[in-house]
Amino acid sequence: MEPAIPVLCICGPSAAGKTTFAAALVDHFRGRGRSPLTVACDDYYRSDWTPHPLFGYDTVEAIDTDALRSDLEAARSGRAASLRLYDMRSRTVGRRVIDGAYDLVVLEGSYGPQDLIQGFPFDGLIYLEESLPVRLVRRLSRDVRHRHRSPRYVIRQMLREMLPGELRFIRPLREHADLVVRDPQHGITAVGRLIGDS
Asked: What is the pTM of this model?
């Protein structure tokens, strides 16, 4: 029986730098001869989701955790040939083909890890922290530029849905973290040590 492929989970609040950190981590491991596969929790949003009256899309319920768990289990066993893909603009679901072999899985996202931490065997749960002002500026920039949302919509959504969702669902993940990262540069090395691959 083949050994399970290690799965690292990068979590934390919105715009904390999870995607950037995950990309840097992938580059770090590639530089050491590894072949990482990235999985984004954002690709597991439900296409038929009616926004929650308080949290909108900033809730665990908006994520199809069964589909996420299924894809992660297939990836962990080396059987995954494709992964779910979600279009934020049209809110439609598709699949993306996995090109080539992989020997490490890097999952990143704010919503999704909550339903996995009690039963999925992560090899490391890494929580990213960043100040609220920096995160608000990043989210505003990202959502206006890449998701084509108006600044007014983004600010309203952050205040009414994002912050309450973070307090309720994301902040508790910190208590389960194997590593809390405040400095991404040092965090990369610490993650390498965490799985014995620094």
From this structure: 0.89
